[in-house]
Amino acid sequence: MLYYLFQLLQDSGVPGARLMDYLTFRSGAAFVLAMLLAIFAGAAVIRRLQLMQVGEIIRDLDLEGQQAKKGTPTMGGIIIILSIVLPCLLVGNLANPYMILMLVATLWLGTIGFLDDYKKLTRHNKDGIRGKYKIFGQVGIALIVAGTMYLNPNMVIVQNHEVIDSSTQRVEQVIYDEDEEVKSPETTIPFVKNNNFNYSWFTGWMGSHAETGGWVVFFIFVMFFVTATSNGANLNDGLDGLCAGLSAVAGVALAIMAYLGGNLIYSAYLNIMYVPASGELVVYMAAFIGALVGFLWYNANPAQVFMGDTGSLTLGGIIAVFAILIHKELLLPILVALFYIEDLSVVLQVAYFKRTGGKRIFKMSPLHHHFQKPGDGRWPALIQWPRMAIPEAKIVTRFWIIGIILAVVTFVTLKIR
Predict the structure, then answer these.
(1) Domain presence at residue 136
(2) Each residue of 338-354: pLDDT tens digit?
(3) Distance set, CA 269 to CA 23, 76, 172, 194, 415 (Å)
(4) What is this structure's pTM?
(5) Which of 68, 88, 347, 377 has the maximum number of C-beta atoms within 10 A of its C-beta?
(6) Under DSSP, is residue 21 helix (H, G, I), strand (E, B) or coil?
(7) 358: alpha, beta or left, given left = phi > 0 and alpha = psi -120 to 50?
(8) Considering the domain boundaries, does residue 264 fall inside one?
(9) Residue 221 is part of which domain span?
């Protein structure tokens, strides 16, 4: 709204009215607004949740400090969602299809998480809405995102072409022909010569229909990444500040990627595809990061509020949808590897438990809880390391450090070919 107001003020010659034309200014404003909103409005939301007695339901898992968390307000994801959406409405370009899709995805996933939390609280147990309904909801937003990317004529890419010196066989420059804007199921991958991968590679056997088949494969990948990342963040949300911190780290990396991919000069330097108009997503991600920083004000150990499924399902889905929109979804297994490892730890634990009639691989799953248990034999499992239980705050900090390393590695891989 402020974006359009400043557009009108430009015609009146008001000094400073052109500030909203600068992506960096609007991104900075979105970050600050989101952070302040999360801190100040967050306090009011927490008080309201306390009055409503919306407390976390804690199962006795014999974890250090677990019972002290009983009654801590949950559904704090409302704070995050409001702190993302409102700054984007104020300083974002709401005519941009990328911004619109991100806002729709945020509210859609937030609604799924809210319904899950609400059902848990009304039933006074940990059983929310059925898993299949959550999957249906996640697949639904994945199809909306993929379908819009396929149908919207303004959501295109500009392919990068290398000019190679015949004598040295080195890349002299990267050329983009703006007349060659194409709609293609193409994405960025690491470790290959030009970093581009077209999903139609899987359907080359279809001949003239290979491109259409590539879009079908793209839809399948989108559904996988949205559900896997959303559920991975949900499983990761088990320690104070863990999911919020890791999501913020991933958000910083994705914001940089969006800025680079939406800028013709930087795209050429990295030799990655140029995605016109995707730079607006930096404003959204700045609000995302600001909201998480503000939320950590209350969610850091010892937490005054938990995000609940309202927050965790939304955060993972946002990260996945954002990566898909900037054509970087195949970098997610590196960037948010910890979310997928949490997914995998639960799948392996359950499968092994059923197959062996009660034996375990980890002392406890999801994986972060494994480190809270001592490896002294009291918790029978194949993996007994570490022998000493690790304090919660140290586990969270170490996971954050790993998340930062993974973010750096994600960027490094773009230049390793």
Answers:
(1) yes
(2) 999 999 999 999 999 99
(3) 20, 41, 11, 12, 10
(4) 0.94
(5) 88
(6) helix
(7) left
(8) yes
(9) 2-333
